[in-house]
């Protein structure tokens, strides 16, 4: 029986993945760097500085550490501006119903997002109080696909990793969940998330399936 549910944020609870994309796109065009949806796929679930490193690598470029910090910070300013206007209307379809159902089943809930902006987004969505724990991304040493963030989440809700189900929209996140020994539910494209135990287009109608696991 599963006792814990761990949620990724961007692309699972709300569509901030599109804002991350737009913020990187803006920075890339300012720097004359190539950036498209395909490169963006590699950034999902990946931390800020590492994301910039991937964009630079794709462009055959390298910046000094100082420059990287400077530009990653600039991208964050664009992103922070975009997430200011997030409201409960931006919660993705099926999420509210799923969380209410899991709560009724007595399942512990956590958020494991690589984003340092996760608490702001959760507050703007007015759902932060639904979760028993929100992992502080700033305290995680190794990002996804390392399992650390999910193991920390499980520990903080007092549930063993194998008793958890994780919800992720990124390939890096699915790998992290599998390495943590959790059941991995992918949200999005079957091809991109082929290592997931189960892939759904979105979270509407997922509760009857989950009844098999909880
Ligand atoms: P920030 P998730 C991740 O969030 C995003 O998918 C990724 O695109 C972003 O670079 C990362 O958070 C860091 O975000 O710059 O706000 O700290 O999908 O793990 O919820
Ligand atoms: Mg995500």
Report what the structure shows.
The chain has 214 residues and is an alpha/beta fold. Helices cover 43% and strands 11% of the residues. The protein is built from nine helices and six strands, in the order βαααααβαβαβαββα. The protein has helices at residues 17-31, 37-43, 48-58, 65-83, 95-104, 118-124, 148-156, 171-179, 207-210, and strands at residues 4-7, 108-111, 133-134, 164-168, 183-187, 198-200. The protein has a six-stranded parallel beta sheet with strand order 3-2-1-4-5-6, with helices on both faces. α1 crosses α4. The model has no long low-confidence stretch (mean pLDDT 96). Residues 8-11, 17, 20, 43-48, 51, 76, 79, 113-117, 170 line the site of 1,6-di-O-phosphono-beta-D-glucopyranose (B16). Substrate binds at residues 8-10, 24, 43-48, 51, 75, 113-117, 144. The record marks 113, 144 as: Important for catalytic activity and assists the phosphoryl transfer reaction to Asp8 by balancing charge and orienting the reacting groups. Its cofactor is Mg(2+). Belongs to the HAD-like hydrolase superfamily. CbbY/CbbZ/Gph/YieH family. This is Beta-phosphoglucomutase.
């Amino acid at each position: 029986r599963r006792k814990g549910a761990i949620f990724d944020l961007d692309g699972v609870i709300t569509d901030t993945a599109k804002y991350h994309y737009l913020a990187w796109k803006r920075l890339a065009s300012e720097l004359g760097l190539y950036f498209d949806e395909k490169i963006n796929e590699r950034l999902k679930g990946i931390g800020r500085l590492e994301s910039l490193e991937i964009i630079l690598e794709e462009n055959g470029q390298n910046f000094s550490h100082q420059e990287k910090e400077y530009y990653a910070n600039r991208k964050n300013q664009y992103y922070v501006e975009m997430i200011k206007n997030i409201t409960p209307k931006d919660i993705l379809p099926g999420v509210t119903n799923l969380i209410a159902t899991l709560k009724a089943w007595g399942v512990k809930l956590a958020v494991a997002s690589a984003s340092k902006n996760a608490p702001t987004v959760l507050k703007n969505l007015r759902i932060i109080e639904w979760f028993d724990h929100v992992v502080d991304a700033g305290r995680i040493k190794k990002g996804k696909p390392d399992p650390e963030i999910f193991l920390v989440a499980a520990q903080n809700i007092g549930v063993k990793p194998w008793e958890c189900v994780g919800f992720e929209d990124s390939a890096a996140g699915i790998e992290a969940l599998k390495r943590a020994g959790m059941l991995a539910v992918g949200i999005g494209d079957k091809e991109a998330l082929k290592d997931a135990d189960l892939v759904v287009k979105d979270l509407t109608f997922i509760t009857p399936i989950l009844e098999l696991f909880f």
